Amino acid sequence: MSDVLVSLIVFVGTCVAALVGFWVQRRLPESHQNDATKSSVRLTIGMMATLTSILLGMVTASAKETYDAGNAVITSMAVDILTLDQILDNYGAESASARQQLRDSLHYRIETIEAGDAYFIADQTAVKGISMMERLYNTIHSLAPTNELQRDLRSRALEILGGRVSYGDGNLAQQRWFFTVKPASIPQVFLVVVFGWLVLEFFCFGIFSTRNATVLTTIAVGSLIVASAVFLILELENPMSGFLRVPTESLRLAEQLLTK
Asked: What angle (nearest 5°) sits at the alpha carbon of residue 251, between those of residues 246 and 255?
C-alpha cells in the first residue's frame, strides 16, 4: 500500500469519525452533555492526544534517523570513491582499468539509487553472481606492484574497497547493501493501533464540540496535519523510494570530479 494511500485513509477516517461524533451528539440526552461531563471527557481526550503526539514524535524521530543514516552512507560512499580514485591514480598507469571500473560502478550506482526499485533488482542480480565492486576488488588485487610505494597504495585501495578503512561505517563493498538490508519498517499492527487511537480521538471531538463551520474547518485541518505526519513517517523510513528519497548530489559531484 502506497504512503499517499495510507495518509489519505488516515485523513478520511479521522474526518468521518468526527462527523459520526456529531451525529451521536444529537442523540445524546441532555444529562450527558452538561459542563461536568464535558470537563471529564476533555481530560481523557487531552491524555489521549498527549500520548498520541508523543508516540508520533518518537516514530518520526526514528524514521528521520533511518533517513539520515541513508544520507550518511551516500556521503561516505562519495568520499571513499574519490579517495580510492586518488590512490589508484597515484599508483600509476597500470591502474587505468581499475579506475575506469570505479567510474562505471559509480555511474551504475547513481542510476540504480535514483531509480528506486531498480536498486533492489540490481541487488538481486548481484547476490547471484559477482558484483561490480567485487570485480573491481579482483582487478586491484591482480595489480603487480614493482616497488614499496605501489605495494602500500594497493594495500590501501583494497582496504577502502573491501577492508576496514573507510570514511563511514563499513567499506564500499559493504555500504552498497545498506539500503537492501535496511532497518525494519514500521509494523502494520502499529499503524492500525495508531489509526484506531486517532479515530477515537476525533470521534470524541465530534461528540463534545460545537457544530459550526469554524469547528468543522479546525477538525479538517487537524485531520490533514495528522495525515501529513503519518505520510512523513512512512516516507522517511524508506529513503530509497517515494517522494523523499536520499539525495545523490554528493555522488554526482564525485562522478564529475572523477571525469576530470
From this structure: 155
CB of 157 within 8 A of CB of 87?
A: yes
The closest alpha carbon to 15, from 192, 194, 199, belongs to 199
Q: How far is CA 138 from the centre of its chain?
A: 33
Cα 190 versus chain centre, distance:
18
Grid cell at residue 193 = 493501533
DSSP 93: G
Encode pLDDT of 18-74 as tens digits. Answer: 999 888 888 877 766 677 777 777 788 888 888 888 888 888 888 888 888 888 888
Chain CA centroid to CA 68, Å = 8
- pLDDT tens digits for range 90-122: 998 999 999 999 998 888 888 877 776 655 565
The whole-angstrom separation of Cα 252 and Cα 238 is 21
Would you give the distance in Å from CA 14 to the centre of its chain? 26
Return the closest-CA partner of residue 89 out of 157, 155, 137, 33: 157
Comparing CA positions, the residue from 21, 2, 38, 1 lying closest to residue 222 is: 21
Q: Does residue 232 have a pLDDT over 80?
A: yes
- In whole angstroms, how far apart are CA 50 and each of 43, 62, 201? 11, 18, 11
For the cut 70, the answer to whether the pLDDT of residue 1 exceeds it is no
Q: What is the pTM of this model?
A: 0.75
Copy the grid coordinates of residue 119: 536498486
